[in-house]
Give the backbone structure.
Amino acid sequence: MDRNKISAVEHYLPPPPPALSSDFVLARLGAYWRALGVSNPDQIAALSEQALRRAAESPESPGLDPLARILITAGELLNDWLARTLDLPRPSRELAAARAALLSGAVPDWPAALFAAPGEAGGLLDALRVAIAEPTPPPSPGIMPVQRIDLFWLLGPLHRLWHPELRA
Amino acid sequence: MTQIVQPPIMGHTLRRVVFFLLVLLTTLVAMGLMVSVFQTDGLSPMELILLLLYAILFSWICISFWTAFMGFFVILTGRDRWSISRQPGPAPDPTVPPPRTAILMPIYNEDSERVFAGLRAIHQSLADTGQLVGFDFFVLSDTRDPEVWVEEELRWQDMVRALDGKGRIFYRNRPENTSRKSGNLEDFCTRWGGHYRYMIVLDADSIMKGETLVEMVRLMERHPGVALIQTPPVPINRESLFARILQFAGSLYGRMFTAGLNYWQLGESNYWGHNAIIRIQPFLDHCGLPKLPGREPFGGEILSHDFVEAALLRRAGWEVWLAYDLEGSYEEIPPTLIDYAKRDRRWCQGNLQHLRLTLSHGFNAMSRLHFSMGVMSYLASPLWLLFLIATGIGAYFQTQHEPVYFFGENWAPVWPVSFAVEMTTVLLVTLTMLFLPKGLALLLLLKDGRLRRAYGGMFKATLSVVLETLFSVLTAPVLMLFQTKFVLAILMRRAVGWPPQQRGDHMTSFREAALTHGGQMLIGIVAGVLSYQYVPAFFWWFTPVLLGLGLAIPVSMLSSSIALGRQSRELELFLTPEETERPVVLRYLEENLEEDEPALPVLREKSASRFVQVLTDPYVNALHLSLLPEREPPGKRHRHYLEGLVHQLEEEGPDSLSAAQKRDLIADPDMLPRLHALFWSRPPAKVGMVP
């Protein structure tokens, strides 16, 4: 048997490259920012730099390759900004809903708000607040007690005769 | 919150007395004729069995016949002062705030596009009435399939955007679908029920006119002692020949039957599970369903929960009505004979479970009757089969008797007494009871010119009734064997599970038809050969049944044909008023289904896999994450399980994961951002779906 002929099965997701080049990291980050709706190269560069800096400061996450960790950090930058400007707790469903609203296309020029000076992006933020989905109303709970159903059994009438309290 | 029971009204009691007397008398007359045939030389055990079976089956037919007759009478005279819509009620209390109503659509792995197109049509129709403000919409998803789950979320968002429905159109997916549909509704009631006075329960294929919804709320407001009003859903929208025939029958005969049901059931009517309005507080107080002791199929969760909920409301003194004269309530039906049988299989188990409830302590007599009728609707089939077999065996033994003409020293022959007249009378009475309602429904068309034209005119409607009757004669033996098989399987404790329904039009292939009906055809051929060989006289009486079984495969295939369905429509056969003049709400549905410009950009692109999209697309990922319920962090074991799935996904791709595994992955709020980052961190050329 010629063992040289056996090749590893190709993985669906290829394994991460052994060494990350900065060009590769910036290319992936750039693609990701563009997918989020940031198209201005300067803004992309600034955001990527922030993400890289923050990822370097954060502790390593077990089971995550470095690039995935940087991408998660990039997403967290966005969450931070949303939580801060909309005054939302984090992590929370409200924050996730705000992020979904931001990325839904309801506020097309949101990167402008991200880079605007505090207080200058009020209109955009109002539009964002309107676009945040409410999947369910606030709870208004009720109690639904389980009902008793006494199934018929042949000796039931006799049983009830013996235990008069059951007839009530 | 138990309602004080009103004293029985004289008119109500009189109606029931008349109805049950008619059923009893007709059954007794038919039984008398049968006994006169059998009793010449005493009743043999076989004759006794036949008599017993005939008594059960004939009384069942009688209930149906007299219900139809009462309905005929009510519609003909146009007088029904006890119908819920005509009863006066107290003026609304001005100090009580106007009611809020939740429109609930429980779904389970359904076609999301159709579900949301339907819900939008209802919303649009309600908006036309100007009463939208009193209603909220809930899509209560029990969907397990991850692809359908993500699609539902996107469709919901699209609907909210398109209709400006924020805070009015809601969606949630249950992490566990405990107790199936009844559990789904219970979850709504216990979490958000306090916001609303009423809920209108729909099915995934239900459509209701806005005016009807408003009228239902108005009726509930007018009758504070009523807990539930059921509307009769009219079958619509299918194009296959099978479904069009059923739609025609359901539409033409259905209104007569529902009017008849209301005639004698009145405020002790039943709940059919959807297209009904329910007062939430009594539902909360009295409809928490217990698990039945024992294991499936008779024990465990109550499957046909609707009958039981109606019985529990009645037990607590609340009224349950059938508003037969409320129009604008629609549903879609299975498109083929095989799909129809599959639906029967699910319903059969639920209805047979009611056998245990029929004699349970505390239910009202009418509720017991509803349970029994539900059971009989499936038990009738094996009983008919037994009756046919017993008749055949009886006829065979008859042929083995040599007639004796000379007794003792009599020189003159003693001719055997002929009971042909009595037997023919019995047969004719039975056939009349079965088929006369169809004629009565046709007669009603003579009264109403507009309706007559809506059914294609008197000639086309009559021709359609004749063809429908022939079709039902052909399919009845097939359904009899199907239902007998289902009943036997359930009695042998083979549970049915909760398979989703195939609702859209589609053709039955030869393979599917042969696999499904092959055994039935074989039974038909064997029964035909045996009866022709041993009881030739019986064979000819038996031919309608034999023909139905022998032709099961071609009938099933041909009737599933959409082309034949369309052709029959061009010929103006099996027309229904909803086809002749489309109600606006159905036109909305059509437009919504044809619309190819969703408000949500992501829906404009066709996605091969919503599962992959939820991992790759930042918006879909964020939306899905925002809709996940808050939950306790999973234990170590579950985390390891999820890690294992991530590795499998990395190495072997999404196709290697089962639907349940995919669901587990995207149901975890911690895993979702990690998977998203993972998909974006790998070289794009090979991943193929990330730019």
